[in-house]
Batch of 3 targets.
Target 1
Amino acid sequence: MDIKKFFSSYSGVLLENRIYRWVLLLLLVSNLVLVVLLRSNQTVVLVPPTLEKEVKVGHKQGDRAYLEAWGLFFATLMGNVTPRNIDFILATLQRYIAPAIYQEMSQAMLEQAKTIKSGNLAMSFTVQEIVVLEGQSRVQVKGQMAMHGPFGRSQNLSRTYEFAIAVRNYAPVITDVLVHDQKQPGEEKEG
């Protein structure tokens, strides 16, 4: 049987029409399935160059490694401050602050910025340990902080930054910050 001749006949055209109807139905169903799959909340796997291992973040939550990475970022940013970089640090942190605490935290950071600028102080923070509190989205970053004054005086403290980090639309949001300081005995130096 000649295929060209068959499809040019009336019964061939009807068969071809039925085949196209089934293909169209199959394509419609596959598109609907794709729409349903794309609308579901999926987990995104990230491996940024600054992380040592892959992290998973969903629409409203992140895994332990994600919280550790952001806690380390925020603590390093807040703990290493000079009069020249304080404005940059304030602007960067304000992007991550939750609306509920934005005014209070921004005001506290502005007051700290004034103190750092007027006293010509510099702070450096060395991380020693990161702890993610189980069952919570809280991260504690523990380390040593040194505050240097203009005349060579240095003050060393054990400092812990504790962040409550929520995830909204795959991005971290700081919902609470606590800073715990503990003076080191005999660490006050005159220089």
Target 2
Amino acid sequence: MTEKITNLAKNTSYFTLALILQKIISFSYFVLIARSIGPADLGKYYFAISFTSIFGIFIDLGQSSVLTREVAKRPDQTGRLFSSVLLTKLPLVLLSLVLVFLLMNFSAYPEITRQLVYLSMICMALDSFTLTFFAVSRGFHNLKYESIASIVFQLIVFAVILIVLKFNLGLLWLMMSLVIASLYNFIFSFIILKKKWGIKINWRPDKAFIKSIMLVSLPFAVYAIFQRLYMYLDSVFLSLFAGDRQVGIYQIPFKIIFALQFLPLAFVASLFPALSSYWQNNRQQLAITFERAMNYLIIISLPIAVGGIILADKIILIFKSDFTEAVLSLQITMLAIVFMFLNFPVGSLLNACDRQRTNTINMGITLAASVILNLIFIPRLEAVGASLTVLLTNLLIFILGLMIVPRIVKYNYKKIFIILMKAGLAVAVMGAVAYYLKDQLNLILTVTLAGICYFIALYFLKGFKKEDVISIAKSFLRNKNNQAAASLSDEAA
């Protein structure tokens, strides 16, 4: 038992470290790419990734999540489970590749954009198989190899991009960096599958078993499709209605908030198993843990949002003057950070308390709202319209989730409101300092000093106590049970 708890604790550490390093490395090479190629070419590059990312989910259809869950339940059936998923995935990969090729071949996009899409689709196909291979490892409660591979993947991309930019090899070779890294991940994950777990592929389809896997995968597939469309349709709409340059402009706020998500992701990685355990055994502690999670993410998200709004013009200069048009878009998107961060504990509570179907419905409603708002805003406001949609839809899904929470747990919303007020006052102090210093000092010093002022002000306002941090940390450590590995696996996916 002690060994199992130790392994699960290691999984948490591997996952969190890998997540943080992934975000740092990927954001670093994004900055290099943006500074080197400008908004228009950046728009072509990320349109290709966004377009193929949508099709990528139709390859997997949630089967990898099911594979992880079923392997954990029935390890003796791993070979049969894996073979069934793999044989289902092969025709889906072929169908997706053909469909993307036809759509691009008969589109009005320039040849360079088509070639970028073709290369990106190769990445999506390889990554989908890699996801399935590592799903087996997750089923055996092992995130070590996947965590290592994810970091090596980013390092390969970074190294190839440095070479491409150094010798000015062009957009196609920038995309080739992803192909090379995806090929590495594919080979590495397959070797782990064969050598570590000894899985053999049965090429004779078990039709009844495949049908059962597809049926079980359906709820996972629906949510995954909604989520993927929500994340990437805005870039596709921007390309269609506003052009490549606006896609490139929009990528600045998109990548910044995407990089910042490691904060709530790492937090929720430990929160989820605690919520799951308390749902079964201790409803009072469930309410307390949810309240604290909301409080901590308010304390973290408010200064990031307000600081980002105040310092947006300085942040944009990191990407060179070609992107000054992105300032307003960044400011709007930074405001969405608060709702985006708070959606993590709300969504985790619903999932931990057997309300996955509600989460899927909420995501479907949010996707529909996103499509409508993007169709209204993008033709008129371009990248600003896409950012405004991000703000409104994050607010919507937060409200939808928060409406369900009182049906699950009786929490003290007044405590959360008090923390919100205290954090708001501390942020006002921080904002004044940041606004005064931003033209006096460089960005790093301004952020550092403003951040220090925020936490000092919050401490004197009694917005947090050392005992709170110790208590919630202990509650997470006590509940690193079997559910931890499964929940971490979902986050890693």
Target 3
Amino acid sequence: MDASPSRVPEPWPYRLCAAVAAVLIAVAAAAELAMGRRLWGIKGEPGLWSGDIFSSHNSQYLTDPYTFTHVTHGALWYGLLWLVGRKLTLRTRFMLAVALECAWEVFENTDFVIHRYRAATISLDYYGDSVMNSMCDVAAGIVGFLIAAVLPARATVVVVILLEAALALWIRDSLLLNVVMLIRPIQAIREWQLHR
């Protein structure tokens, strides 16, 4: 449960909170469109789920296995904002988390990061997320934040570990592996990821 002091007045009524979150998401979507990202990706085909991370539809449909890494993002945003902003109300931290997740999605879809993914990770044919996939990733981050706000800290840690382990077994990738491979690629991990 969240440990926000009950005596601090909440500056974000639910409706305002939802409206600002919607505006942040719309601004992120507009930024990605302005950067040349397509609404539904390379082939312009809408879809709900792409389970094959090596498919041309990965990161193009609404959801894919990497959507689950954004649930972890949300839980991590919650923890980080709790550590650095304990005096802030839960809804203020929520709005900051939405802004951070939107900013990450825009940054993740810059040419610099896309080229880095293609050079250093197993995402050899990655050309950026579709705008719809990216916005669903933000929604997954929101889910992760809310899970962390509701569950005790230990339960949240267990959820994150289970998500990471399940993804590593399922697709041989996870948020932790992705970050490691982006920052300092390890050839042994790359070979393990590519040989299925």
